[in-house]
Each structure stands twice: as C-alpha cells, then as structure tokens.
Amino acid sequence: MTTQAVPAPDALAADAQSLTKTYGSGSNVVHALRDVSATFGRGQFTAIMGPSGSGKSTLMHCLAGLDTPSSGRVVVGDTDLSKLSDAAMTKLRRDRIGFVFQAFNLVPTLTARENITLPLDIAGRSVDKEWMQTIVERLGLSDRLGHRPTELSGGQVQRVACARAMVGRPEIIFGDEPTGNLDSRSSAEVLSILRGAVDDFGQTVVIVTHDPRSASYADRVVFLADGQIVSDQSGLSADDIYEYMKQLDGGSGRTHEQ
Predict the structure, then answer these.
(1) What pLDDT is attached to residue 1?
(2) 164: Cβ–Cβ under 8 A, 6 or more apart, which residues?
(3) What is the Cα 102 distance to its own chain's centre?
(4) Using CA atoms, how far apart are residues 159 and 139, in angstroms rounded to an integer?
(5) What percentage of the chain exceeds 90 in pLDDT?
(6) Neighbours of 147 (CB within 10 A)
(7) Which residues contact 79 (CB under 8 A, 6 or more apart)?
(8) Domain topology for 2-250
(9) In this predicted structure, what is the pLDDT of residue 101?
(10) Which one is predicted more confidently, 101 or 35?
(11) Which helix (H) or strand (E) holds 150?
C-alpha cells in the first residue's frame, strides 16, 4: 500500500479545496463533508469509498457540479465552479463531464445510437464518426445500435451509458455506483471499459462504489468516513480494500493513514 502522490497543477483534471457541506441547521444539522481537499490527476482512475453516510456521493456530486458545497471550491481543469452561473454550470456538465449512473438514465424511446449521441445533439455538436465507431466497437455495441433500452440486457444498457459518457471526449467521467444494478460478469465488463478509457484513451475516471472488487480496478482509492478523507492509497487489491473497509465500518477510521 502506498500513499497517493499529488499530481502537478497542470496535470489536474479536478481539484477540491476545503469542501464543507452541511444540511439543515441547529440541532438537526448534518455534516456531509468536513473540510475535504483532494486532487484528481488527468488520465487517472480513482475510486471513492466509505461506509454509508461517509460523504462519498456528496463529494462526487460536488466535484461534478451536481451539488454546491457550503464552503470551499471545486476547480475542473482551470474553471472554478463557484464562479459559474447556472447556465454556465449546465454547459460545463454537458460539454466537459461524462456521467455513468447506477440507474443507467437512458431515454427508453430512443435507440442505443440516439442515446449515445444525445448529449452532443443537445449541445449542437457534430459527432466524430471515427471516434464513435472506435467506442462502439470497443464496447461491443456495433450490432445493437438500432435497439432500444428495453431490447438490451442490463450489461448492454450500461455499455451504452458508458459510450454516451465517452463520445464527447469529456475531461472527466464520473460514475455513481455504475455497476450497482449489474451481475458480476456485466460488472467486470463495465469496469474493464472504464479501465480501458483511462489506459487506452487517456481519459479521467472517478467512481463512487461500495464494492472492493470494483474499486480494485482503480489506480487509487480515496476512503471517507464521517465526511472526511481518512486514507488515500494506490496499488490496492480487492482484499486490501475489503480489509480496510472492515476497519472503517468498525469505527471512525481516524487512526488510519491520512
């Protein structure tokens, strides 16, 4: 197990600086994040893990511009999200970020091809046909492009979601439990796709997961507990991650490597 090195500033895809997120007030206040800082290097696959209520999904949502921190800031590339209007934030999410969700979020009336190109169509951007073909072939979807989501298996549907996230060449692909609704074989396929997006295409991937096997595909695992980062490690096996998660589930985790 090794502590993750901090990427150089020009190699950063995203930078979270002193993020705090609270909900409610007074005796009902909930601290989802407590002064969290983390950097995410370009061309790196990061998994965010932690017990239920640790703040892992809140952190990802703040990084992706889906939620706003109570204090602190997030920088994507060279863009400070706190300085964006709602319209500019929507444009950033559409043009510079890809998403893969547990629930797939495909449009049921559209074909696989139409779902893949939907973000580009909405943005008025042309599809790079050569890149689209590369992705479709790599994901094994060439003979499924005319099918609607109901005509595809769960694994195929999530592969379509991965293709949709990749087709615009986003700066970061975020995955929120991207294999949560899949069987073990389909999960391995999707994780291999995300791993390949990093290794073969130089993309940046950040996923939230509760599954040590899924996290073991990542270069780096960031562990949260009680709204704080308690460990940031690379080179972990699924067994390493499982053992560490057992420790976190059994206590606050604050005595572990920072």
Answers:
(1) 45
(2) 98, 106, 115, 116, 117, 118, 119
(3) 11
(4) 6
(5) 70
(6) 16
(7) 92
(8) Rossmann fold (3.40.50)
(9) 85
(10) 35
(11) none
Q: What is the 3-state secondary structure (H, E, C) of 169-237?
A: CCCEEEEECCCCCCCHHHHHHHHHHHHHHHHHHCCCEEEECCCHHHHCCCCEEEEEECCEEEEEEECCC
DSSP H or E segment with residue 38: strand 30-41
What would the two tokens of residue 253 be?
């985790």
CB-based contacts of 160: which residues, under 8 Å, 6+ apart?
104, 106, 112, 115, 116, 139, 141, 144, 149, 152
- Residue 206's DSSP bridge partners are 46, 174
Report pLDDT digits (tens) over 97-135: 999 988 778 999 999 999 999 989 988 999 999 999 998
pLDDT at 63 over 90: yes
- Domain positions in the chain are 2-250
Q: Which residue has the tokens 């706190």?
A: 82
Residue 78 has pLDDT above 70, yes or no: yes
